[in-house]
Amino acid sequence: MNQWEVVIGIETHAQLATVSKIFSGASIAFGAEPNTQACAVDLALPGVLPVLNRKAVECAIRFGLAIGAQVAPKSIFARKNYFYPDLPKGYQISQFELPVVQGGAITVQVGSGDKAYEKTVNLTRAHLEEDAGKSLHEDFQGKSGIDLNRAGTPLLEIVTEPDMRSSDEAVAYARALHALVRWIGICDGNMQEGSFRCDANVSVRRPGAPFGTRREIKNLNSFRFLKEAIDFEVQWQINEIEEGRTIQQATVLFDPDTGETRMMRSKEDAHDYRYFPDPDLLPLVISADWVERVRGELPELPAQKRQRFVEQLGLSAYDATTLTASQEIADFYESTVAVAGQLAAKPCANWVMVDLAARLNKDGLDIAQSPVSPQQLGGLVLRIVDNTISNNIAKKVFEALWSGDGATADEIIEKQGLKQITDSGAIESLVDEVLAANAANVAEYRAGKEKAFNALVGQVMKAAKGKANPQQVNELLKKKLAG
Amino acid sequence: MIAKTLKQLSQALAAKEVSSVELSTLFLERIERLNPEINAFVTVDREKTLKMAAEADARIAAGTAGPLTGVPIAQKDIFCAEGWTTTCGSKMLANFVSPYDATVIDKMHRQAGLVSLGKTNMDEFAMGSSNETSYFGPVKNPWDFTRVPGGSSGGSAAAVAARLAPAATGTDTGGSIRQPAALCNLTGLKPTYGVISRYGMIAFASSLDQAGPMAVSAEDCALLLNTMVGFDERDSTSLDRPVENYARLLDQPSAEQPLAGLRIGLPKEFFGEGCDASVMAAVQEAIAEYRRLGASTVEVSLPNSHLSVPAYYVIAPAEASSNLSRFDGVRYGYRAPDYGNLDDMYMKTRAQGFGAEVKRRILIGAYVLSHGYYDAYYLQAQRIRRLIANDFVEAFKSCDVILGPTSPSTAFRLGEKAADPVQMYLSDIYTIAVNLAGLPGMSLPCGFADGLPVGMQLIGNYFDEARLLDVAHRYQLATDWHQRRPVGLD
Fold first, then answer.
1. Which of B208, B326, B371 to mutate to test the interface with A (most CBs of A within 10 A)?
2. What is the ipTM of this complex?
3. Nearest 5°: phi and psi at B100?
4. Of A44, A216, B174, B354, which one has the fewest beta carbons inside 10 Å?
5. What does DSSP assign to residue B406?
6. Do B200 and A47 touch (CB under 8 A)?
7. Which residues 155-214 of B are in CB contact (within 8 Å) with A?
8. What's the pTM?
9. In Å, how far is B99's CA from the nearest CA of chain A?
10. Confidence of residue A1 (pLDDT cuts 50, 70, 90)
């Protein structure tokens, strides 16, 4: 299978986090009764006109700045003409020849652990457009209903170059983009409600050959579907070619139930959208001042934060990338470090990335829902680094914090008597007891069996109910056994 | 009373010589009597009109009236008016009752206190130059019932010419105010693009459409224009500029040569072939009158004006084909009674709901925007449009206003050009370039040929409406063509 190279480009529709629609004053809140959030403009009554929502433009500028793109000083809204019942005007206002955001790139981490690598995905463009309404095919005695609440909702369509070479890269990009749009506050990222949906353009080729013919998989609204759909499509295309058929350009849909893609329309059926500049809207002019004002309002971006984590906190590149995968993770981590101190940056990173992540995963929670707050976790790490408790005890304390058995690590350590024994006299007497009671192990160790030493450590820790400082136990045991 | 100007009616109302209810009733009675023959109005609603008139009378009594409060006018049926059937001359919207007011309607009625006598007939979706494409039947020219009133604002023109209303609104995409004004002996003004909000005015070609007043005189047009203009945040192409009083120059005392110093440009392209000799004779006589008023004339050139009709018939249909897509039978308006699937519903609804001229322009528009044709037609037409606008910029370097005929002929016979679209399109040959350039233009009466009115066109530089109106007004102080009315209608 190695003789095929996969080529993927992704188009994402991110619903912008504005209060009102892109060309009208109607609300875009999700879940209202059908057609209660559609004003005269959204209904495309005769005579109505669009007026551009400034907030939507600011979202586009934020995005352009966040990916290092060119924010076009002048861009054009165009009409994309086609008939559909949920498209009230008979055209969608979008951008065609001159989009508001041009170029840019997002660097993502693909894979994890040792196999992780960085990948830079270049963006072609991002443009503003309006969403359509929704057709409702049930509950109308065989007729279809139309809900125009969503019509006119502002979208940013974000288009990549065909830079991805596997479904893993595609998913890594989509996740990074998802995190970024939420990070800069332009999209709530709610994939169930359709606020963030991806189309994947997939083709295969022999390495070094020109691009193959692509097929576009529409409307993938989860990362899992994105991966499954691409994997299926790639295999399907390879089979087709290997069986001597050629790929026809087409738009396909992914069926999550069967895990298969199926053709929606071929290139021959493609609409001629008859794009032309919308004469109801002036060119969108964005001044350098406006761009600078928006730049000043941007939060620290993931890439900047990542660099700071490496330079100031001494984290590895991998840790820094993982901890900046989303604003929530980064915030959680930084709040933890704020309590535990900068010197504890690395143990804080481990706790957030490993222990907390595993525990959240087990309960199916995301970090915003963590029962353990960053302040609690920071308090816990503090007690590890000041040797009040060992890492093993810390796990117990963490579990207690998770179940709400105490408000702080200190309270739990106190209440449950988990404080580490560091009094060398106390440890020495425990060591003496163990050596006396385990003559067989002592003999084995002295005969050269290193394993016996670990057994003795275990015995001491057991006698200390896990609370003895492991380092001191080690040192004392070695000294006694040597003596 | 029916012969009075807006200014005189306004004074009579203020002096309580007549109430708005009385005045409105007078015109409603004329409409009732004469409209069955002329067909200028498609919707009259006595109750609504008299309610507005009573409200205006209350404002007058309370001392909160504006200059035109209580004066009745007619509205072209292209403006959405809350609670009024708004048809745009089409079967597609024959039963569409607007739930909202166009900005023009809001400004004129709710703010200025004018009273609406009803909605006037028009070419379907403003596409036509004779008012014959209306779903509600042709309008007859009050000067000769066998002739057209011009279009697309033919109903408004006929209504004012027959004094079924003292004044009316029109809209002008390629000449739709000026040409019917010329053919019905009215004064009509198309302002600079962006001066009057297009919100609520059913779009034909968005980059060309502009509303304006149609009345007996330039002075009436100025007064009406004052109530229509202003920046509107609901129209992105509306211009945010200081409000001006368009009648401000008109009250200045008239000297013997009131237009001394004025340079009138005469484009040589407007005085060549293609214009009826009788029309040209009247225009030449008007030029002579202007010289007597002190103006000088200078020949100018608009070298690309011969390209204006072809460019227009690419750009306007392109925009129209998209603007009219919303009439799909899904949400409002006409829907075919019997259909199979969705596509069938679309096709039957639009096949039955639109008339032939509208369908012709939708087809042309869809064609010129199609993949593979866009560059050759649409983009090329846009380039020509810029050239035409530049021609005017050049011309205005040597003159203050441009003068020529409004229409190459007087009112033609009903049915005469209906079968030949190109002949029909050529009746706007002098007016279209003004829309392509976005300039203000007006038509005013300048004589008669075989008993039919002749109009001349004045074209001004951007935002020069006040001067344009003054130049027309000085002519109207010296002539009485605009005061002549068709006989037998009193």
1. B326
2. 0.96
3. -150, 165
4. A216
5. S
6. yes
7. 198-203, 205-207
8. 0.91
9. 9
10. very low
